[in-house]
Design brief:
- The protein has 336 residues and is mainly alpha-helical.
- It has one domain: Ribonucleotide Reductase, subunit A, CATH 1.10.620.
- Helices cover 72% and strands 0% of the residues.
- The chain has twelve helices and no strands.
- The longest helix has 53 residues.
- It is globular.
Length: 336
């Protein structure tokens, strides 16, 4: 089969695969309701209805858990942009269109549930959260925003889209799962575990559709895979002050370079047998070799991060010790 297929040709070739994957997804998915995972009895009115405004002392989450929850929620909030992107690339016809709408419906409950949990438990400043939501959704998101280079990089193809969301869904699953553990709260852990299960099924759909596409046009798929992975960023990177938030999240073990490489990048590449298959030729083979070098660079990034993380944690320990000592001296002085 000819390598350089148009998106329209690929959509047609992959339609039976999409239909099969939809049926598998519907047989594997578990229906759940966001309201079942919210501790409503903990809730109370805010000032506008005669209640109490939010106070930082009301939050029971650690800094890592709080920032991770906000980042995860704001990422989910950009669903309108994600829906637009896959609708433009997948089309709204036949099985493709059914999946676009089904996926959007399932994803929508994630943001609903996360926001309800955070507001009911008063874990975060609701005014700040709403301001961030408006700014984040106004900015929008497109995978093409990640890419650096000429205009050809910014042109999104079907392969670009389906390969990107494969990695993004798996990364989101891992981020939610680790955030749930960081919350140190049974309800939050259950909620985020439920969301993670959704994300995992979504990832399987995109991963297996991508795999089928690689069988049809391997070199064309490799071109997109190389472009996506070497420029990969999570959708949340458009969140205001994302760099600082990412450092806190990484240092806290929710999502860091090692997790990205070992739990997201490598499992997918191994599933697709990228470094074992022999159907890449010419430019495709060259890009596969470059991707192998990129993986080596990611490994080096992991090692550098671990060193930087240990230095940061050591500085924080020293600051905490000095603060504790100062408080002890103040207490001793007051007692004397």
């Amino acid at each position: 089969m000819t390598e350089e297929l148009s998106d329209l040709q690929l959509l047609h070739e992959l339609e039976p695969v999409v239909e099969k994957q939809i049926n598998r997804h519907l047989s594997m998915r578990k229906d759940w309701n966001p309201h079942d995972y919210i501790p409503w009895s903990d809730g109370k009115n805010f000032y506008a209805l005669g209640g109490q405004e939010w106070d930082p002392e009301q939050s029971k989450l650690s800094e890592v858990a709080r920032i991770a929850m906000i980042t995860n929620l704001l990422t989910e909030d950009n669903l309108p942009s994600y829906h637009r992107e896959i609708a433009m690339n997948f089309s709204m016809d036949g099985p493709w269109g059914f999946w676009v709408n089904r996926w959007t419906a399932e994803e929508n409950r994630h943001g609903i549930a996360l926001r309800d949990y955070l507001l009911v438990t008063r874990a975060i400043d609701p005014i700040e959260l709403e301001e961030l939501r408006v700014e984040q959704v106004t900015r929008g998101f497109s995978p093409g925003q990640n890419l650096q280079g000429g205009d050809e990089l910014f042109a999104q193809s079907l392969f670009d889209s389906v390969i990107y969301v494969t990695f993004q869904e798996l990364a989101t699953r891992v981020s939610h799962r680790n955030t749930g553990r960081a919350c140190n709260d049974t309800v939050a852990d259950q909620l985020l575990g439920r969301i993670s299960a959704d994300e995992n099924l979504h990832m399987i759909f995109y991963r297996d559709v991508s795999a089928a596409g690689m069988e049809i046009a391997p070199n064309q798929a490799m071109k997109s895979l190389h472009k996506i992975l070497t420029n990969f960023k999570m959708p949340g990177y458009t969140i205001p002050d994302f760099r600082r938030k990412a450092v806190v999240i990484a240092t806290g073990g929710v999502y860091d370079p090692r997790i990205h490489l070992d739990d997201i990048v490598m499992p997918v590449l191994k599933k697709w047998r990228i470094f074992e298959r022999e159907d890449f030729t010419g430019e495709g083979a060259k890009l596969r070799d470059e991707l192998a070098k990129h993986v080596e660079e990611l490994e080096e990034t992991c090692e550098k991060f671990e060193i930087a993380k240990e230095r940061r944690l050591e500085r924080e320990r020293k600051v905490a010790e000095k603060k504790a000592m100062k408080n002890l001296l103040v207490s001793s002085s007051a007692a004397g």
